Amino acid sequence: HVQLVESGGGLVQPGESLRLSCVASGITFSRHDMSWVRQAPGKEVEWVAGITSLPSLFRAASYADSVKGRFTISQDNAKNKGYLLMNNLKTEDTAVYYCSAIRSVQYWGQGTQVTVS
């Protein structure tokens, strides 16, 4: 049984930081491409960041323009966890954030709420 569980969301003020975590069970995270997406109230799902499953030396991260330079995606293979470090948060970053692991099948977590106000 595959499960992704996000945590680390909360209420912060503009300019502050949060680090979201995504712990995986039932899969080896490093063998999957990982991404973070978000959905704000009344808006469509927005892709935020992604990282490939290549060996760490070649692993490539990519970001939406809206978060580039502020957010950093990473993985800890030993802990089978993924992270999204979010710095200099803005009110427009308010959303439910979901992590996803993709190989032949795509898995999703239940989401964690981030509120910047």
Kindly describe this structure.
The structure is a single chain. The chain has 117 residues and is mainly β. Helix content is 0%, strand content 52%. Strands 2, 4, 5, 6, 9, 10 and 11 form a 7-stranded mixed sheet that branches. Strands 1-3-8-7 form a 4-stranded antiparallel sheet, with no helix packed on it. It is globular, with a radius of gyration of 13 Å. It starts with a strand and ends with a strand.
The rounded distance between the terminal residues' Cα atoms is: 37 Å
Structural class assignment: mainly beta
Number of helices: 0
Tell me the quaternary state. single chain
Low-confidence regions: none
What is the general shape?
globular
Largest sheet: 7 strands, mixed
| SS strand fraction | over 45%
Mean pLDDT reading: 94
Estimate the helix proportion, in percent: under 10%
* Cα radius of gyration in angstroms: 13 Å
The count of DSSP E runs of length 2 or more, i.e. the number of strands, is 11
Present the secondary structure layout.
Layout: E1 3-7, E2 10-12, E3 18-25, E4 33-39, E5 45-51, E6 61-63, E7 71-76, E8 81-86, E9 95-102, E10 106-108, E11 112-116
Parallel strand pairs: 2-11
Antiparallel strand pairs: 1-3, 3-8, 4-5, 4-9, 5-6, 7-8, 9-10, 9-11
Q: What's the short story on this structure?
A:
With 117 residues, the protein is mostly beta strands.
Search tags:
mainly beta; four-stranded antiparallel sheet; 117 residues
